[in-house]
Amino acid sequence: MHELSLCERLLEMLQEASQRHAFHRVTRIKLAVGQFACVDPDALRFAFDVIRRDTLADGATVDIHQPPGLVWCEDCAGEREVPTRIAPCPACGGLRLTPRGGNDLTLVELEVA
To answer: Which residues are annotated as a binding site?
Structure first.
């Protein structure tokens, strides 16, 4: 479950930010987990619930937004949303697709005290 290691790194980032910006508690975290990021949002929530205990993020809520997978279709020259990396272009059925978005896991926002 690589979501646990992602949460460990997230917690490290929170601790580093707390030292730079002098806050002691995180109350809410907003993440964007792209549809192509190979991260299960439910597993990420579970892992964060486990790892945040007795830390500055103990009790923090996690909001996860999942941006769609975007591709550029070489066949019809358009950017399209697709449900999976192997799906054909929904407009023309073409298979010459280049990923354009939905790959990232991004810390979007923090609420702190």
So the answer is: 2, 73, 76, 89, 92
Produce one character per residue of 59-78: b if its CB has 16 or more CB atoms within 10 Å, e if not: ebebebeebebbbbbeeeee
pLDDT digits (tens, 9 = 90+) for 24-41: 999 999 999 999 999 999
Q: How far apart are CA 74 and CA 95, in angstroms?
A: 8
- Residues within the annotated binding site for Zn(2+)? 73, 76, 89, 92
Six token digits for residue 4: 């646990």
Number of CB atoms found within 10 A of residue 89's CB:
19
Q: Which regions of the chain are under pLDDT 70?
A: 1
Cα(24)–Cα(53) distance, rounded to whole angstroms?
14
Supply the pTM of this predicted model. Answer: 0.83
